[in-house]
Amino acid sequence: MNILISPEAAAWFKRELSLQEGAYIRLFPRYSSGGGLHPGFSLGIATEQPGRPAVQFGEGGLTFYMEEQDLWYMEGYNLSIVYSEAEDDIEYKYEPVPVA
Questions:
Q1: pTM of the model
Q2: Which residue of 43, 44, 64, 98 is most buried, as measured by CB atoms within 10 A?
Q3: What sign results for the dihedral spanned by CA atoms 88, 11, 16, 42?
Q4: Which SS3 state, helix, strand or coil, does residue 13 take?
Q5: pLDDT tens for each residue of 59-87
């Protein structure tokens, strides 16, 4: 599993969440009426220090990560977080990991 964050998406996080360089963004599955990869769940975000990070990715002075217990949500997928100028929002793009 890889997580890619575009520079524009990182700038959006900084602006929308009033973050400074060095801040952490946790990505985690949360209960939701909407949908992401799994019915009843979507990807949530929190600005908190890592506890037991399994994966970390940096962009724009921010560190994005997922904790060990949350990896089930992304199993078999890569994630790209991109900025949509038309919506002035971020988009999550899930792509299946090719099977070798």
A1: 0.90
A2: 64
A3: positive
A4: helix
A5: 999 999 999 999 999 999 999 999 999 99
d(CA 34, CA 50): 26
Angle made by CA atoms 87, 58, 4, in degrees to the nearest 5: 50
Instruction: Give the pLDDT band of residue 41 (cuts 50, 70, 90).
Output: confident
pLDDT at 38: 79
CB neighbours of 77 closer than 8 A, spacing ≥ 6? Answer: 1, 37, 94, 95, 96, 97
Report the alpha-carbon distance of residue 80 to residue 66 in Å, rounded: 14
Q: How far apart are CA 74 and CA 94, in angstroms?
A: 9
